[in-house]
Design brief:
Elements lengths: L3 H5 L3 H11 L2 E8 L3 H7 L9 H8 L4 E7 L3 H9 L12 H5 L14 H11 L17
């Protein structure tokens, strides 16, 4: 998910391009506003932590771009491309390393496991909104 800061900074195309260039296949894409209720479901594991309220405030402060990507080892690849959650630890060349300065205003969310990805996808997409298509370029990656 691309968070509100990405739209405000006009970086949507740049971030999507990085994921595409890696060879991942985009199967779901949606520009949307997240309600406080949906944000609470998405960040349920962080409820009660000191950073929970700022997380919810940020994710609901403007539109986000929800995405679903497919590919071999997709979760781990996307995590590597996004870089560390802490911007000071995110390496140059990663999305967070290149575009993020503050953890609370992180520009991208990436699922941390296949199980989390399944849960999060079901929060933001209906089954019929995901398009499985034949990737003719997949043989090159």
């Amino acid at each position: 998910m691309l968070k509100p800061g990405v739209l405000n900074r006009r970086l949507v195309g740049e971030v999507i391009s990085r994921l595409e260039k890696k060879g991942l296949k985009l199967v779901g894409l949606k520009l949307m506003n997240i309600s406080p209720e949906l944000a609470a479901q998405h960040y349920a594991e962080h409820k009660g932590k000191p950073f929970y309220d700022p997380l919810v405030d940020y994710i609901t402060s403007g539109p986000v771009v929800a995405m679903v990507w497919q590919g071999d080892n997709c979760v781990s690849l996307v995590r590597k491309l996004t870089g560390s959650t802490r911007p000071e630890e995110a390496l140059p060349g990663t999305i967070r390393g290149d575009f993020c300065m503050h953890t609370q205003n992180n520009i991208i969310h990436a699922s941390d496991s296949d199980e989390s990805a399944s849960r999060e996808i079901s929060l933001f997409f209906k089954d019929e909104e995901l398009i499985d298509w034949e990737d003719q370029a997949a043989v090159w990656f």
